[in-house]
Design brief:
Length: 132
């Protein structure tokens, strides 16, 4: 892996950063969210990819509305963002409002592996691996 991956994105929906991602070979946009504990994938994308969930595997999340919800927890065989690839990562499945046209959210269970910066002037997410 290079010393840093620079992922060019775009700002949308009032100023959040969206970056291109690939989930099991399917291109999508992911919202960068340091306030999210998990990667979250839209129910529509999960259905399209044919990923099934076990009703016994759930996670508790607290979306903006403040109510704690239990949502399906799945394992994603492959996720890549820029030059960074992750295998068998956990994600929650949520229903986003359709007008967002969002594939998912890139949460801290992915981002915590990196020294992360957002270059606002270039709409770029920069990921530098943390030394092991």
């Amino acid at each position: 892996m290079p010393s840093a991956s620079r992922i060019r994105g775009r700002f949308a929906y009032g100023g959040v950063l969206l970056v291109p991602g690939r989930v099991q070979g399917h291109d999508t946009e992911l919202l960068v969210d340091t306030g999210a504990a998990y990667i979250a994938l839209s129910k529509d994308l999960v259905d399209l990819l044919g990923i099934t969930s076990d009703p016994q595997r759930t996670a508790a999340i607290a979306p903006v509305q403040g109510t704690i919800m239990r949502v399906p927890l799945i394992s994603i065989p492959e996720l890549s963002v820029g030059g960074v690839r992750a295998a068998n990562v956990e994600a929650v499945v949520v229903e986003f409002p359709r007008e967002l046209k969002l594939g998912g959210v890139l949460g801290m269970n992915f981002l915590k592996q990196f020294r992360m910066t957002i270059e606002v002037d270039t709409c770029t997410l920069v990921l530098r691996p943390i030394g092991r």
